[in-house]
Amino acid sequence: MKSIQYAEAFEKLWSEESERKSQLTNRLYCIVFLFCNPISSVAFYLSGDSFFYTLFTTHLFSGLFLLLYLLLNYKKVITGHQMSFAAHVTLIFFYSYLLSLPHLSYVQSSLNLTLAIIFAGMILRWEFRYALIASVLPLVLYPLSIHFASDTSLTLFFEQGGVFVLVANCIFPVIVKLRYNKDKAEFYFRYTLQQQNEALAQQKHIAENATRAKSNFLSLMSHEIRTPLNGIVGIVHLMMQEENRSEPRSGELLHTLKYSADHMMTVVNDVLDFNKINSRHVVLDPQPFDPRQLFENLRKMFGPGAIEKGIELIFEIEPDLPDLLIADRMRLKQILKNLIHNGVKFTAEGFVRLKVEQKEITSDFVKLYFEVTDTGIGIHESEQREIFEVFTQTKASNQRENAGTGLGLAISRDLLQLFNSEIVLRSEPGKGSTFSFELTLRYSQSTETDYPATTLPTPPREGIKVLVVDDNRANIVLVTQLLKRRNLDFEIAVNGQEAYEMFAREKFDMVLMDLRMPVMDGFESTRMIRLLDKQVPVVALTASSFEDEKERAMSTGFSGYLTKPFIPEDFYNYILPFLGIAATDATE
User: Do the domain assignments include residue 525?
Assistant: First the structure.
């Protein structure tokens, strides 16, 4: 049924297209014969043939029919094809009448009739049935009119050019059919191509909407999950730092809560990191850092877990590494963290080893070889390609105790591609796995760099006051508790409008601003605050980790951007330098 409807729709469109494209030529055909037929009779006059008067009068009379057809077409009573076909058939009957009259010579008439059919074949775009009728009529009428109505021999007509007239009429329908089929095939190609383009454009639109919806959903999910998670993580850390805790059971419950919150934060970060990489929202941010400090932090991070499982955590680090590497430290740490985490998670006995070697070094760059080896469950060769796909785990690890997002290796692979590197896997089931990659990084052998310091040079001062702007109660409690522990005074605003009004009334040394709030969001509030004070630090505390939102915030006038959830150490390390207080000086 659909194919029939499709064919009918195509034929209708082709009919309209053919009529539109042939409108001019069909009218031209009638106009040419309207004027050229009387003019062609002049040749008879010049040759002294008395047949001129009959011929001229007949052509003037046939011209009246042509004018009528042109008028009907102009009034849209008949189509252009019907007009030219009617004109052609009418002229055939008039030509048949003229051929039946006495002729001194058929040469001129045969020439005119042959030229007429050639001209028609050149410009007309008829259907085959029109061309066939227009061809059969002269083949029948011309000989009959000469044979039965004329005193002239039919043989004389053929000898004086009649053969060419008949041959031209035989070829005419073939030529018209070929040209018609060619035009129709070209239209069909354009029609189907247009349909395909429209379908592709529609699918592209659907895909873009789906991608946009996915991005918006993940952005919303980021905010909705990270916001309460920030309160959980932060308050758990605060409670664990309390000295007066009399019941051991409460400490155990807090450790369990902290573990669950940290795990939830890891899952959310994995999903959002993968989405950002997949959406090309991740751009590496090269900054100088101490590689030894990075590896030491990784050792402290995974050491307790390795000890708890009874496995050995080994770090074999090249002793002659440069003092400073210039790269995206956070992304490099994320890659190594994912690989070491997998090693510890899937190793029941033996060891997990991080090996870092210096392969080559020039005056500007150093090539480093990283290798993470474990003696865990290993990966079967048939699964080694799939292990880097999204949400994929090995069959041997597909157990509740080893549950996870399955994103760690996929994220590590994609991040390494941003570093222009590839991850290599060697593994045997039951014998462990080795993940390795190489990075070529800029470096410096001196701690003196041209990069700006991360802390402000101003000395600490008394009476610091901070404006906290957030509409979430848990986040307000967390941030204000953190400020209290550093003896920092604060005021609270629950939306951007209230924050602006408070800032206009009194002096603040810093503004901690959420981005998404009712009444007025953080972007607009910061823009208005900047009209009052261009120097005061305004730091975004937000659950959105998308790079484009960070760029928007920084271009709006924010001084910094701290993503929720964060632990107290991250908060102090980031916030205090804006107040001229070294984070190390503020630890308890």
Answer: yes
